[in-house]
Amino acid sequence: MFQYYFMLGLRSLRRNPALTALMVLTLAVGVAASIATLTILHVMSGDPIPHKSDRLLVPVIDNGPLAGYTAGEEPNDRQLSYRDASNLLANKVAERSTALYGISVAVEPARKELPLFNARGLAPTSDFFNMFDVPFRYGAGWSPAEDKAAADVVVLSRQLAEKLYGDSDPVGQRLRINSQQYQVVGVLDKWNVVPRFHRIIGTPDGAFSDEDELYVPFATSVRHEMQRNGNSSCSSDIAPGYQAYLDSECTWIQFWFELRSARERGALQDYLNSYATEQRKLGRLQRQAPNKLYDVREWLDYMKVVGNDSKLSAWLAFGFLILCLVNTVGLLLAKFSVRAAEVGIRRALGASRREIFQQFLIETTVIGMAGGLLGLLLAFGALALIAMQSKALTVVAHMDWLMLLLTFALSVLSAVLAGLLPTWRACQTTPALQLKSQ
Fold it and tell me: Which of 25, 116, 275, 319 is the most exposed place for a label (fewest CB within 10 A)?
């Protein structure tokens, strides 16, 4: 019976092509608008590293001046000073830890046809690659011994490696960076983590920036006084010179801990509190502000990766979908009302109200499927237009299998909901009145 009603539904689409097309288009536009917005929100608010997001923690230590401070006030910056980052690295209180900051360097290709160019990079410690499950195409990251020695080694992104060396394996090659020779020890594979949670601060598009082009050891970048590429916050004037900057309270370094188990978070918090107490005895951290730890999901919320504007846009899109459903209800009422005579004859021949209800509801499902297919195409088009607006939107404006299924399911469900009232009205047709009018 379902197959028979389904075929009737397909035939009904051809009875009034203009009205059918209007219903399908109305439903498709509403679904496309809501799904395109929901897709972006879904990508932006997803857990980028779900198997260990509760074990990766960011410390926030407020080292700002006491003057002008109000208790409970948020710190000026969520980064650490060089002194705090170095102390946390040296104490090794977690399974892994890394300090990192952005750098900008001049790359001198060995290929004569390529001119000198600037590259955006990152200066982390060796634990970085294992902490964040960074995939490698060739080679690997550097060792802790190379961290300690501040060795001149570099890891390239896949895009930069292909630009410099083509498809060949460049591990072991020498690359000139800032007039210094660096040995290539690894090449990353494509690493499209979204949002790019490990480096939200100091990038052009925040959590949705492009991948860094190269990576050098944290200690190496400090030894060579590489140009910083990111945010820096200084609460007071500092003496000239790079060493004075390192010794200052300027915050410019991001820091991450990785724990063996989320249960160790309390012990890490106790360590941070003890560390702050010791630093206060040295005349630092006079604000007495609480030291905080944020896991990945908490960090994304704290940094407002998904802002209120994005959430409001999603609600407005679903409001638009409801408006489209109301219009679809009116069109279905008009479509089914002209078939009152057909319903009356069917009822007179013995069809029950339940059978009439099933027939018309399946017809609305057919309309929903047509609207779903068209809505899916419109959603792809909308996402393509959104992606053209900026690089950050290019990262988030793509649809995965979950959203594909959700688009189709939402369209069918919307059509069924919109068809409940018109279908119920059609079932109330009195056979005697319709037969008498014929």
Answer: 116
Provide the pLDDT confidence category of residue 434 given band limits of 50, 70 and 90. very low
d(CA 255, CA 59): 7
In the block, residue with structure tokens 């004075």 = 244
The model carries a pTM of: 0.73
Pick the last residue of a domain from 302, 325, 351.
302
Per-residue pLDDT for 207 more than 90? no
100 and 165, same domain (yes or no): yes
Q: What is the total residue count of the chain? A: 438
